[in-house]
Amino acid sequence: MNENELSHKIIGIAMEVHTALGPGLLESAYKECLHYKIAKSGLFIEKEKAMPLVFDEVKLDCGYRLDLLVEGKLVIELKSVDMLNDVHLAQVLTYMKLGNFKLGLLMNFNVARLKDGIKRVVNNL
């Protein structure tokens, strides 16, 4: 399954989670539920995946952690905020560049309709 097919499937699963829980919970609650549903669907998913920074040919552990990584290629960054802003987008792009990933989903669950809280992020490597 390529990144686009994965993102379509993940968005569907995220909408199920959002429909069941609604807005207003902590990010951690959405992360746990989404992790559970994605794993249950049979996809390989990693939670809180460490992302080292390579600087001057030295691998540094700076504490960067992806919320979710699906099938080793789709970055998912979750938020539960009033509104997404440029800092959130920069965070996803940074993770994508550090891991050399092509596609990411930035999802804000604190919205009435989840489709209004999803941004698809492309890294043009």
What does this structure look like?
The longest helix is centred in the first third of the chain and has 19 residues, at 3-21. This protein starts with a helix and ends with a strand. The protein has a single domain (3-122), classed as Trna Endonuclease, Chain: A, domain 1. The chain has helices at 3-21, 27-40, 86-99; strands spanning 45-50, 53-55, 58-60, 65-70, 74-79, 103-108, 118-122. The model has no long low-confidence stretch (mean pLDDT 94). The protein is α+β, with helices and mostly antiparallel strands. The strands form two sheets. The protein has a five-stranded mixed β-sheet with strand order 1-4-5-6-7, with helices on both faces. Strands 2-3 form a two-stranded antiparallel ribbon.
Which strand order does the major sheet show? 1-4-5-6-7
The whole-number mean of residue pLDDT values reads 94
- Unreliable residue runs: none
Radius of gyration: 14 Å
Share in helix: 25-40%
Largest sheet: 5 strands, mixed
Outline, from the CA principal axes?
Answer: globular
Would you count the extended β strands for me? 7
The CATH topology, please?
A: Trna Endonuclease, Chain: A, domain 1
H and E order: HHEEEEEHEE
Percent of residues in beta strands?
Answer: 25-35%
Named CATH architecture: 3-Layer(aba) Sandwich
Domain count: the total is 1
User: Which class best fits the helix and strand makeup?
Assistant: alpha+beta
CATH hierarchy, class: Alpha Beta
Amino- and carboxy-terminal Cα gap: 20 Å
Total of helices = 3
